[in-house]
Design a protein that fits this description.
single chain, 145 residues, alpha+beta, Immunoglobulin-like, five-stranded mixed sheet, four-stranded mixed sheet, 2 helices, 16% helix, binds copper (II) ion
Length: 145
């Protein structure tokens, strides 16, 4: 009996909950009232899940996380520019809380979204990430300009 229990414990340790991968499309639709938007623009995932941002048309979009849980102290989450249809960028989210992101070229046009990882952050538990900080992060990325 003890041996069986041990085997079951080993098996459950070897099969962690399957992390999921979600897709958010960066949409350009000049015929709609909102020309540029993320679809979906609100998404809830679990820690360990990843999100793939896909450029749905041939306009340039990127993804900048401008509000993130405070635990992400020295970390800026920024995609490279997705310049053409089908360009994609994935990120795995391990820290629970509320995230806000926008597309830099279309920030003024309201291209933005909210991502909840596990549960929403309490008020004051997130921090703003400046464009300067994101730029520094991008310059440090391998293969950046
Ligand atoms: Cu955009």
């Amino acid at each position: 009996m003890k041996k069986l229990l041990f085997v079951i414990m080993l098996m459950s340790a070897a099969t962690p909950a399957m992390a999921k991968n979600y897709t958010i499309r960066a949409v350009t639709d000049l015929k709609s009232t909102k020309h540029y938007y993320f679809s979906p623009d609100h998404l809830t995932i679990q820690p360990g899940d990843s999100v793939t941002f896909v450029n749905a048309q041939n306009a340039a979009h990127d993804v900048m996380f401008d509000d993130v849980p405070k635990e992400l102290k020295d970390k800026a989450i920024v995609s490279p520019m997705l310049t053409k249809k089908g360009d994609r960028w994935s990120h795995t989210f391990t820290v629970a809380g509320s995230y806000h992101f926008h597309c830099h070229p279309h920030e003024a046009l309201g291209m933005q979204g909210v991502l909840i990882v596990g549960h929403a952050s309490l008020p004051g538990a997130t921090r703003h990430v400046s464009h300067e900080e994101m730029e520094r992060h991008m310059k440090a990325m391998p293969g950046s300009m």
